[in-house]
Amino acid sequence: MDDGRWNGMEMRDGFPRPTGTHPTQAGPLLRTERDSHALRQGKRREKTGEAMRDRRGGLGEGPRSLRSMNGPPTVPGGRQGHEGGGCDWERRRRRTKTGGEMARLSPLHRRENAHESGCWSVCWASEDRCVLSGSMDETVKQWTVEEPGRLEETYTYPEHSLGVVAVASAPGGNVVASSSLDSSIRVWNVEKFETYAVLANMPSETWSIQFSPDAHSKVVAAASGSLSGVSMWNYESGEKICSMQMPPVKDARHQPRRFALSVAFSPDGKRIVCSAMDGTVAAFDVETQKLLHMYEGHKMPVRGLGFLPDGATLFTASDDAQIHMYDSGNGNLIDTLSGHESWALSLSVHPDGEYLASGSSDRSIKLWDVRSRSCVQTIMEHKDQVWGIQFSKGGKHLASVSDDKSIGLYSFQ
What is the pLDDT of residues 31-64, one digit of tens each? Predict the structure, then answer.
């Protein structure tokens, strides 16, 4: 058993565990010894996301415990968020390139109790006609976007045996994938509801997933957790193409291998970036599979990744509550976007590249103007941490999911 200490965590039985009584930095990782045992023995754990937290004492509840200590999160402008939802528009009188007012998000519909447990992931599919949400209740649900902006449940994908931590859609929109704590990636069709492939992995080695933007490559990639890097498969053949590892940690006081959390392809599909729990991000060349450079600056887990459409800029969201803006070509830090009161858990870049949205454990969704690098809107619709957000491919809508079991839909204009 490895008891090496690592960024506020201990590696025990091959899994990262929080040390002492500090709030866990693992987020969607295994949080109790029972979960570790269940995975090692191949047993099915209890059917709820709450079962992943130790409520018998000893461990904090991450963002939830931070809220209980600090009170309701304060949004820019000095007002506090409230449980009933609502918006702090905080619109600045700047002008867009076309001379109009700044764009904004407007809440359209929020489905309470969309799942039986917390929702951790969301994506758009079928040419923006539907939204997928993944949950700790072990299901992926498909929601059709109906006029004038309502989400109607149309299908529940029931094939996973543990919580779903990530969902993603392939170019074209009908092929999607879901990643689960059952150590599998399932690739399926949202029109025919057929499973194309099951990509099996070892426990604790399948987290965030993304398809290559090159539709002809048929490649899906995953952050490989304890394997410390990226794994890629051809989802049509089921063949594993390669694994790319992040460099070992230099500080001997830490666990020598990084735990990989998230992945993102560059828009041209030639590079892939992978983030880790120690706050670092690695960039790899997809063709040569060689490490290009490291992005440094965060000291806590990085869970959100996103490129601007031209691929020149990379954004990262971290548990340090910061969003970093990097030159993707050389790894240099350009700027830091500050405003969240707690962990920045997710981000999504608008297709036009002018705006960025981020979700946080402070329950907020923030809209950022990329050119001015400032927050222009804060929305407080969710009652718990916002694990996933994504703009539609056409850019007209944003979807969000939260640990409060709900899914939200917003217009963007």
Answer: 333 333 333 344 333 333 333 333 222 223 333 3
**What are 167's two structure tokens?**
């969902």
Given strand 239-245, what is the order of strands in its sheet?
209-211, 219-223, 229-234, 239-245
3-state SS class at 263: strand
CB 317 within 8 A of CB 346: yes
Q: Dihedral of the CA atoms 19, 25, 27, 32 (nearest 10)?
A: 0
Q: Give the up-direction half-sphere exposure of residue 84: CA atoms within 13 A in the CB hemisphere.
A: 0
Write the CB contacts of 107 (distance below 8 Å, at least 6 apart in sequence).
85, 87, 379, 381, 408, 409, 410
- Cα 309 to chain centroid, rounded: 19
Give yes or no for a contact between 234 and 193, defined as CB atoms under 8 angstroms apart.
no
- Rounded to the nearest 5 percent, the helix, strand and coil shares of the chain are 5, 45, 50
pTM listed for this prediction: 0.79
Question: CA torsion 66→67→72→73, rounded to 10°?
Answer: 50
Query: Over the stretch 243-263, which tens digit does the pLDDT of each residue have?
Result: 999 998 876 565 667 899 999
Question: 382: alpha, beta or left, given left = phi > 0 and alpha = psi -120 to 50?
Answer: beta
Strand, coil or helix: 389: strand
Instruction: Report d(CA 365, CA 341) in Å as an integer.
Output: 11
Question: 363: which 2 tokens?
Answer: 């329950």
